[in-house]
Amino acid sequence: MPGDYERAEEAAEVIREALRMHPQLGVPRIAVVLGSGLGAFADELTGAVKIPYNSIPHFPVSTAIGHAGRLVIGKLGELTVAVMQGRVHPYEGYSSRQAGFPVRVMGRLGVKSLLLTNAAGGINPTYGQGSLVLLSDHINLQGSNPLTGPNDDRLGPRFPGMSEAYSLRFRQLAQQAARELDIALPEGVYAALAGPSYETPAEIRYLRAIGADLVGMSTVPEVIVARHMGQQVMAISCVTNMAAGMSPGELNHEEVLEAGERVRGTFLALLKVVLPRIAAEQP
Ligand code: HPA
Fold first, then answer.
1. Is the pTM of this model over 0.70?
2. pLDDT tens per residue, the chain (283 residues)?
3. Ligand 1: which residues within 6 Å by Cβ?
4. 4-280 CATH fold
5. What are the domain boundaries of the chain?
6. If you measure from the C-alpha of residue 274 to the centroid of ligand 1, how many angstroms do you get, rounded to a whole number?
7. Is 253 known to be catalytic?
8. Which residue puts its alpha carbon closest to atom 7 of ligand 1?
9. Of 42, 120, 39, 108, whose CA–CA distance to 81 is shortest?
C-alpha cells in the first residue's frame, strides 16, 4: 500500500516537472510557509513558478480565509526559495499527518531548511499587537502528532528527538539580522491548540502557567515532520492579538488578518535578510 513516502514522491515529481520548464530556478533547498495575513512575501520572488495546491497530487488544500493555497518557487536575489502561500490546519478537519504532508514533499524535493510563520495570540504581557516573536520551543496541545501510525524509516526515525526543534544557529542568525535592522525580536514558546474556537481566559492563564508565551493553531505538525526528516527549522510568529482575557473585547479573525498586514514591511525586511543567511549555513 502506498504510504507518505510514495505520496510525497508523487507530489514532488509534479513539482520537479514544473521546475524543468524553468531551469534558471534549479531546485529549492529552503522553504517558507506563510501564515494567515502573511502571504505577501511570495510577491517578492522573481521569475517565479506558481503551482496551485490543487494541481499537486495528495496536497491538502486550505480552506482558511487569508490563505491563497499555492506553492510559489522563485528567486530571492540569487537564492531559490519555495514559498507555501497557505497551509492546512487540524481544525479544518485535516489530520496532523495531512497538515505535515507539504513539509514531507519539500523534504523529498531536497529542502533542508524550513522557515515557518504564523499568526498567534500573545500571552507574554511584554508582547504587543504586531510583535514578531522568534520561536524557541513549542508545547503540543493539539491532541495529535503527525508521526502517529507506522513509521517509514526512509523518511526518518520512529522516535525523533525534539530537543532542538528550532535551530539554535538559525535563531542566532535571526537575532543578528533583527539587531542590524533595528527590529525587536523577542523569543517565545508557542503552544499549539486544536482550535478553531479561540481560547477562554482561563485557558490562557493555564497556558501562561505552563510556560507558553504564544498560542496558535498551526506550525507544530510541520515542525515535527521537518525534524523527523532532519530538516533545520526556524519559526516566527506575528502577534496579531493579545490572547483572550488580556485585553477587552472579543477576538476575531479579521483582526488577525489586519495585524498581519500592518507588520508586512518589517516582516518582509527580516525575511529578506535572514533567508540567504540560513541558506548559506547548509552543508
Ligand atoms: N489564539 C489562537 N490562535 C490564534 C490567535 C489566538 O489568540 N491569534 C491568532 N491565532
1. yes
2. 679 999 999 999 999 999 999 989 989 999 999 987 777 888 889 999 999 999 999 999 876 665 568 999 999 999 999 999 989 999 999 999 999 999 999 999 999 999 999 999 999 999 988 899 999 999 999 999 999 999 999 999 999 999 999 999 999 999 999 999 999 999 999 999 998 999 999 999 999 999 999 999 999 999 999 999 999 999 999 998 999 988 877 777 777 677 777 788 898 899 999 999 999 887 6
3. 119-121, 198-199, 215-217, 240-241, 243, 251, 256
4. Rossmann fold (3.40.50)
5. 4-280
6. 25
7. yes
8. 121
9. 42
Q: Give the active site residue among 13, 253, 255, 269.
A: 253
Spell 206-241 as b/e; 16+ CB within 10 A means b: ebbeeebbbbbbbbbbbbbbbbbbebbbbbbbbbbb
Q: Which of 44, 64, 82, 89 is catalytic?
A: 89
100 with 224: CB under 8 angstroms?
yes
Reading the block at residue 82, the C-alpha cell is 519555495
